[in-house]
Amino acid sequence: METAGPRTRAAARLGAHATREEQRKRRPVRRWQRRRIEEEQEEAVFREVVSFTRDPLPARYYDKDTTKPVSFYLPSLEELLAWTPDAEDSFNVALEPLKCRQPPLSSQRPRTLLCHDMMGGYLDDKFIQGSAAQNPYCFYHWQCIDIFVYFSHHLVTIPPVGWTNAAHRHGVCVLGTFIAEWKEGGRLCEAFLAGDERSYQAVADQLVLIAQFFRFDGWLINIESSLSPAAVGNVPPFLRYLSTQLCRQVPGGLVLWYDSVVSSGQVKWQNELNEQNRIFFDSCHGFFTNYNWREEHLDRMVAQAGERRADVYVGVDVFARGNVVGGQFDTHKSLELIRKHGFSAALFAPGWVYECLEKRDFFQNQDKFWGLLGRYLPPHSICSLPFVTSFCLGMGTRRVCYGQEEAVGPWYHPSAQEIQPLFAEHRPEGDGQGWVKTHCCLEDAWNGGSSLLIRGVIPPEVGHVAVRLFSLHVPVPPKIFLSMVYKLEGPSDVGVALELTTGDAGSCHVGGISTLSEVSSRHSPRPLRVPPTKLARWVGHCGQQLSGGWVQRCYEVNLRGCVLQDLWVSFSRPPGSREQEAFVCRLGELQVVDANSLLSPLPRVQAVSVSRVRWQRAAPEEEEEEEEEEEEEEERPARLRLSCALHWSYPLSHVRCFRIHCCRATGSPAEGPPGPEKPALLGLAFVNQYRVVDLAVAAAGPGTDGRVEFLVEPVSREGFLVPKAEWGRAALLYSGPHT
């Protein structure tokens, strides 16, 4: 990538033998200004002469078939020691920092670890910018787990960034895996463990650097190879050094050891913490046991673990291989014993519900599996604002933006998964008929690819039923703005209301624009009929019917000295009704934001550049398909496929993601920029760069320039649309190759 200035980087890749004339034609042309939404927005313009010369991309970072950026692993010790961060690595850096949570991971409450091992890893989840996968695996019970381990059998497993973004958004920390197995693993371990401290410290330093750079939280160390006395003797200092250095560079970092090698250097799975492996437990943050334990193993471990019982993660193989207490849909039997003894649990490969059961029943089976474990999985609470979710799973059969359909077809993008609720069935105490149950729903969406489906029954003897969706622990600012987007299915007069629970009742003062009627510890704010004047720019549709049958309810609440603890949705029977009321409701979005944060000015996307341009001729069959779609055109230019890299500057702490759009046109340079065209969505980015892949464009005719304009739309953390004046823009002008 050339760096001729932050807003004038040349898009052309100048070859060593390019003529001065070619270089002159490839330089960025003079920038012009165009008025957009009553504000002037500067646009960078880049010129490219079409060339079909291939410029190979680094194989590690890009899929060889599609050139899409991918997450990667390091298969050898040499590659680990040689790795240094470069520009290509930044695609794989997590946007989301680990969210504050309660209780913190450092508390002694028993934890739940999920070890994700699926068919070798790096499947559809490796595509950083998403894919068109149909029926992919999707995990969404995040509030029930505390640690997520991405597992594969490669030496250094770096978690795909989509998993890190989704987990961090829910307050769940993410670990990669360092694994050495069998004879080859033994040779590798001898190479860095059998020597002096400089050898193992070099490996540890690289593991710390990788976690710090890619913004995940630590490592599971899994050595399943016999070690010499010299090598096994260096394992404890290696673990201590790795743990110490990690915590210095990655706040809250974790290093866990898997139960395999014992202090003699032999591979002997113990299925418990004991004197043969305790030295490794004492040298790091936690111990992950093997899976073939019985209750007597747990009994013995109570004394061994002492005050660190929560740091012992008792392994549960969900596939139920070997002599296990319970796996598959009997996994709860293992959890019951583990919690009885006060230990943490490590659930290995819960993707069993996806791999071994019918794909068409995946969501039902996943909900059944986690529902059976619910009593043993205390949820953690998110404790930061803004709190915004559209319930998107990071997948769908179409894309929707605020009620407007943008594209039809399957898509999968784990980074796009938003905060997921507690999935459960709630039945009011003392009532045998009323109930409320939540489900994922891909059939409809307000924003993204899915919504939350809530079904329930209000029995004749009660006025309403409610379901808790989120556990929070948020010290709230003086004034908060809340919003809920929903729609009821079919003819229904059931009332829908947002409720919240506050803590610190002794000092908590509730009041303000919206009077609250308190029921027990829950409050039901009255919706605003019109938005507050200062916030009208953001929330101009409060109380209105929106597109697609959605309705938005808005609330503004004054709170002083309060902690927001839970969010509920309540359903009440229509006035005068005495019959049992069944209802089906879809939730499209919930927002809880600091009202004052909405008054802060937004930064503008700056310095958009176009580089690493690659051209391909469209295949003949693609030309034929496009001609059929546009039969009204008498003559159409030949088609090209454009791939390129976009970079820009924007403070990432302000965004949930970026939406990347394009507009395509042709025209004469003398005519200036063409008129406005409706932008087409290309995809989502979670870093300040995006790779455009195989974008269909028209070839430029003689004496004319082809033109593609790229637009970078920031999506604010508060969940509101950003005015187009704040978007970033860059145009690529291209002409035919010289003959």
UniProtKB/TrEMBL annotation:
Subcellular location: Cytoplasm, Cytosol
Pfam families per record: Glyco_hydro_85 (PF03644), Ig_ENGASE1_C (PF25529)
Chain ranges of the Cytosolic endo-beta-N-acetylglucosaminidase C-terminal domain: 599-735
Chain intervals for the UniProt region annotation (Disordered): 1-31
Class in the EC hierarchy, top level: hydrolase
Primary site of residence: cytoplasm
UniProt keyword annotations, A-Z: Cytoplasm, Glycosidase, Hydrolase
E.C. no: 3.2.1.96
Catalytic activity, reaction form: an N(4)-(oligosaccharide-(1->3)-[oligosaccharide-(1->6)]-beta-D-Man-(1->4)-beta-D-GlcNAc-(1->4)-alpha-D-GlcNAc)-L-asparaginyl-[protein] + H2O = an oligosaccharide-(1->3)-[oligosaccharide-(1->6)]-beta-D-Man-(1->4)-D-GlcNAc + N(4)-(N-acetyl-beta-D-glucosaminyl)-L-asparaginyl-[protein]
Ranges in coiled-coil conformation: none
Gene3D superfamilies referenced in this protein's UniProt entry, alphabetically: Galactose-binding domain-like (2.60.120.260), Glycosidases (3.20.20.80)
Residue span, Cytosolic endo-beta-N-acetylglucosaminidase TIM barrel domain: 122-398
Family: Belongs to the glycosyl hydrolase 85 family.
Protein name, as recorded: mannosyl-glycoprotein endo-beta-N-acetylglucosaminidase
Lineage per the UniProt record: Eukaryota, Metazoa, Chordata, Craniata, Vertebrata
Gene responsible for this protein: ENGASE
